[in-house]
Amino acid sequence: MAEMNTKAMYKLSYGLFVCTAVRDGRANGCIINTAIQVASEPNRISVAINKANFTHDMVKETGACNISVISQDATFDLFKHFGFQSGRDVDKFADYPKENYQQADNGIPYIVTGTNAYFSLKVVEAVDLGSHTLFICEPTFMTVLSDVPSVTYEYYQNNIKPKPEAVGTTPKGEIVWRCRICGYEWVGEELPDDFICPICKHPKADFEKVVR
Amino acid sequence: MAEMNTKAMYKLSYGLFVCTAVRDGRANGCIINTAIQVASEPNRISVAINKANFTHDMVKETGACNISVISQDATFDLFKHFGFQSGRDVDKFADYPKENYQQADNGIPYIVTGTNAYFSLKVVEAVDLGSHTLFICEPTFMTVLSDVPSVTYEYYQNNIKPKPEAVGTTPKGEIVWRCRICGYEWVGEELPDDFICPICKHPKADFEKVVR
Question: What is the required cofactor set for this protein (chains A, B) (predicted)?
Fold first, then answer.
């Protein structure tokens, strides 16, 4: 029997999106890669969100979110702002320039800079999948914002994410583990098995040992 | 209130896959665009399949399938063979060249020509979404087959699908409706509201009136 190669997971294609929600008057958003149409009659869009994300609980409790589709004119700052910090620690909309977002009819902001479309979604079913909840949603509104092509996860990796320097070992000769997803680096001999990236919440399997 | 623009649906990004299954010793496969990872602990891959597809019933009844990830070296013939004919009418593996596929340990064929990875999946939950069933699956095996990049749906539209001639009207001056998904053309004044593409099963919303 052939040996399993989990790098196959990287062959699946994804878009990238800002998922926004509002609870008790407080808005928040995170980066997700899982918005797709899963049925046509009726139209259903599925969205999987990691339970560790603050936005997850907001969508679960309110049953509503907006999905802004990230386009190729997005800068790395958009990913840093919504993906590399948590709404538990900072109010992401407090310091976010007002020209970068607008409020949809459902009362939830959507992003207008570095995006080409947005959807207002109403959750019709939530499937508990362990680390994530899969929200099956009805789109209540959608529109096109620009003609710039959508970003795929592959495009983000090749064209938007800054190339990290190959540090390999630190000046003290320690080993560096780098998250393939967001670039977070951890210094130490062996990454613990239950390690979760503090930035993007991905597990040890998504880290690589950096060799100079 | 702004007007809804359903062209936003085309901004969502997808890969393309051959989904294969076996029932009562008979193998079949169809083209799908919906295989993504939806949870990491445990690892879960979701696959949405249109109920009109013969493969849908096979996966539903057997609880197993393989997903072969289509890569940029795939020819249009692969899409025609698995996407533009139904297993109800033809045995897709009867005349399919034997060098193009192999049998996985789960007894189901996977495609080795024009693909870069494959997954063997076991269905753990099936969510009925009307036109489609969303299968939540556990990968029981996966491996990488090549380093050629995966095809996205956008890549298929721009680089693999033959450009149809702009017929606009027929010699008799009739109007032509063309399926944006597979290129199927229908001649007549007005496409019926309940029209379903006989090739790719997409609804009227995915047809465009062709104007010369």
Answer: Fe(3+)
